[in-house]
Specification:
alpha+beta
């Protein structure tokens, strides 16, 4: 969901988004310092480390065939919650729930969207829950440095939904990241 929301918000004029890899580094650091919970103050600390003005935090739960998403948009400077959004309903309609959150954030930021951006925000990344689940698995495995497993999961997502462009782009990004990691390992071995 984070990747889908980030990809959608990237179409909003005037917003600059933090790269996923940078966000993972900082949230891991904060997570070690703060433990499991992320309240508004913790989100604001993450935002300050990132040089951000706002941070979106949230959670989701899937119970049987039902899904619930909860999110908050936090102003970094004050730790004020600018907007909250919740969406719940059928698990297989997750794509609608994700769009509700994005639209709520855009409204809270008081951004006027040109027609092209509105069209991009209305486009679904995938409407297949299993493709979404495999995509999410792929990201989690990439974050853990298990690139071969990540590639496999992303390929599975694309087999399930051959129009899942975000999965295709993410696979390219993971290939590039894996190549960089391999190069660093080679340099470290030479240095030893």
């Amino acid at each position: 969901l984070q990747s889908m929301i980030t990809t959608d918000l990237a179409h909003v004029p005037g917003l600059k988004l933090v790269e996923r890899a940078r966000l993972a580094d900082v949230t891991e650091e904060i997570g070690r310092a703060l433990g499991e919970g992320y309240d508004s103050a913790a989100a604001a600390r993450v935002g300050k480390l990132l040089g951000a003005t706002h941070v979106a935090v949230g959670s989701f739960a899937v119970i049987g065939d039902t899904m619930r998403l909860d999110a908050r948009l936090v102003v970094v400077e004050s730790a004020e919650v600018l907007a909250t959004a919740s969406a719940d309903g059928e698990r297989d309609a997750f794509f609608d729930h994700q769009k509700v959150l994005v639209k709520r954030f855009v409204q809270a930021l008081q951004v006027t969207l040109p027609a092209k951006a509105r069209g991009e925000l209305g486009r679904y990344h995938t409407t297949d829950f299993e493709a979404f689940r495999r995509f999410s698995d792929g990201l989690a495995r990439a974050d853990a440095g298990r690139f071969d497993e990540a590639r496999s999961a992303l390929r599975d997502a694309m087999k399930i939904d051959d129009r899942f462009e975000l999965a295709r782009r993410t696979l390219v990004d993971i290939d590039e990241l894996a190549a960089k990691v391999d190069e660093r390992r080679k340099l470290a071995r030479r240095a030893e």
